[in-house]
Amino acid sequence: MPIDIHPLRGALKPGYLPALLALLLGACAHEQPLVMRPPPPELVIHVPVETIEELREEIDRMADVPGDRMLPALSGRVEQIDCRSGVEDLHARMALEVRGGQVASFAYYSKRRPRTCSMDMRRDDPFIKWRLTPEGATRVQTPQGLFLIRTSSEAWEFEFLEVERQKFCGMEGHINGRMIIKRRVSNPECSVTGLLDRDEEDLADAPDPAQVLTVQGLRR
């Protein structure tokens, strides 16, 4: 006696099985493809990408300047100078080493309570370029900005040109200005212009009125 291998075959009405198969096949044909949904906005981390202009600026800071020459080798008598301008909570300080009339290194420190800035530039640093300009000044190029050192028989003048605060001070903006150190054997005298400038909001928040007068006096 033959055995029916499909137990439902006898229970299905004629023509029902083909209709069921057609329905199942149609559902498979219209099945939506798997789509990866984006993560929630709060889980997305946006990594800042440098623009072309920013990359060019970074490269240009270290680019050779036409007319600049290599500095002569350091030799001769060593001079070490340390000078400060300002008051305790608002001042700029420069320490430099000079060999044979050439600046071999300089370290700058400033304090604008409670913020401080500190930088150290040396001739033997492979990431800093020291060059002699056609005018006889020393050009110090760093990825964070530019310094010009002008030497005369009376003083050393350090000019800061668009030096990024972020690396040296931990805050946004740029440092621009000058610091002049007069040649004195016993007690060097120095002055600053622009390096300690603060905007009007900073002046309004200064806790000590004497500090406001000091800043305004340095701006003149």
Question: Short summary of the structure?
Answer:
The chain is of the alpha+beta class and 220 residues long. 20% of the residues lie in helices and 36% in strands. Strands 5-6-7-8-9-10 form a 6-stranded antiparallel beta sheet. A 4-stranded antiparallel beta sheet has the order 1-2-3-4.
Describe the structure.
There is one protein chain. The chain is an alpha+beta fold. Helices cover 20% and strands 36% of the residues. Strands 5-6-7-8-9-10 form a six-stranded antiparallel β-sheet. A hairpin with a 6-residue loop joins strand 9 (174-182) and strand 10 (189-193). The N and C termini lie far apart (118 Å). Residues 199-220 have low confidence and may be disordered.
